[in-house]
Design a protein that fits this description.
- The chain is α/β, with parallel strands linked by helices.
- The chain has a domain at 41-176: Rossmann fold (3-Layer(aba) Sandwich).
- 21% of the residues lie in helices and 25% in strands.
- It has helices at residues 38-56, 71-86, 140-150; strands at 7-8, 31-34, 61-67, 94-103, 113-116, 128-136, 156-165, 177-182, 206-208.
- The protein has a seven-stranded mixed sheet with strand order 1-8-7-6-3-4-5, sandwiched between helices.
- Helix 2 links the parallel strand 3 and strand 4 (94-103).
- The longest helix is centred in the first third of the chain and has 19 residues, at 38-56.
- The model is unreliable at 212-217 (pLDDT under 50).
- Bound molecules: guanosine-5'-monophosphate.
- The site of guanosine-5'-monophosphate (5GP) has 15 residues, from strand 6 and helix 3.
- The site of guanosine-5'-monophosphate has 15 residues, from strand 6 and helix 3.
Length: 217
C-alpha cells in the first residue's frame, strides 16, 4: 500500500538558479527560480505509479484527469503505469477520461465549482476510479469532485495529486498519492498556468516574480 505524504519541500528552499536550466526566452525576467526540476517529478511519478499498481493492480481502473493543469501529470503517470503493467504479470486495463472544473465567481475563492465535460459520470459505477489532479491547495476542488464522483457509486476511489500545498486545508481532503508537499507559494510550469501563461514552461514549477507584469509577455 502506498500512502505517504510525498517529498517535503521546506519553506526555506530557495529553488535552483534559473541560469542552470533552459527555459523559453519569452519568460525571461518573469521567473524566480526552478522549484522542482522536471527529472525529479518524473522519478517521483514513477514511484507513485508503482504504489498505485500495488493498490489497484488487480482491477480495471478508470482514470479521471482534472483539466487543464492535470493533463501533463496524468499523461506521465499513465505512461508509467502502462510501463509497469507491461513488465509485470499483473495487467491493468485502464481507460482515461477528462473533466474540467470551473468557478463562475470572478477572481473570488472558488466556492461554487461547476463540472464541465463529463457531467454524466455513470460510466464510473462499480469501477475503481483514480482521480488525477496537479495541485491541491485548499482542497475545495478535490472535495467537490469526490462528492460528485461518489454519487455514481464507484467500487473504489483513489486520488493522486502531484503537489499538495502546506496551507490550512479547509476541506480536510488529502490525496491518497502525493508527489510533493510544497510551501504556500504560487507555482507555474508543467501545465500549471497563471491565467493561461506558463503552461508551455517545461522547467517545472518555477515560482514567478511577484511583480510579474502580463504586458511583458
Ligand atoms: P483548491 O484550493 O480547490 O485545492 O485548488 C484549486 C485550484 O487552484 C487548483 O486545482 C489549481 O488549478 C489552482 N491552484 C492552486 N494553487 C496553485 C498554484 O500554486 N499554481 C497554479 N498554477 N494553480 C494553483
Amino acid at each position: 500500500g502506498g500512502k505517504d505524504g510525498g517529498i517535503v519541500i521546506n519553506d526555506d528552499w530557495p529553488g535552483y538558479s534559473l541560469e542552470l536550466f533552459n527555459y523559453p526566452k519569452h519568460y525571461s525576467g518573469d521567473l524566480e527560480c526552478v522549484y522542482i526540476p522536471h527529472g525529479v517529478i518524473m522519478d517521483r511519478t514513477e514511484r507513485l505509479a508503482r504504489n498505485i499498481m500495488g493498490d489497484l493492480g488487480d482491477h480495471d481502473i478508470v482514470v479521471l484527469c482534472v483539466l487543464k493543469a492535470g493533463y501533463q501529470f496524468c499523461a506521465d503517470l499513465v505512461e508509467r503505469i502502462k510501463a509497469l503493467s507491461r513488465n509485470s504479470d499483473h495487467t491493468l486495463p485502464m481507460s482515461v477520461n477528462f473533466i474540467r472544473l470551473k468557478s463562475y465567481v470572478n477572481d473570488q475563492s472558488t466556492e461554487d465549482l461547476h463540472i464541465v465535460g463529463a457531467e454524466d459520470l455513470s460510466f464510473l459505477t462499480g469501477k475503481n476510479v483514480l482521480i488525477v489532479e496537479a495541485i491541491v491547495d485548499t482542497g475545495k476542488t478535490m472535495k467537490t469532485l469526490l462528492k460528485h464522483v461518489e454519487a455514481f457509486r464507484p467500487k473504489m476511489i483513489k486520488v493522486a495529486g502531484l503537489l499538495v500545498k502546506r496551507v490550512p486545508n479547509s476541506s480536510g481532503c488529502l490525496p491518497d498519492y502525493v508527489g510533493f508537499e510544497i510551501p504556500n507559494r504560487f507555482v507555474v510550469g508543467y501545465a500549471l498556468d497563471y491565467n493561461e501563461y506558463f503552461r508551455d514552461l517545461n522547467v517545472s514549477f518555477s515560482s514567478f516574480k511577484t511583480d510579474f507584469n502580463f504586458t511583458d509577455v
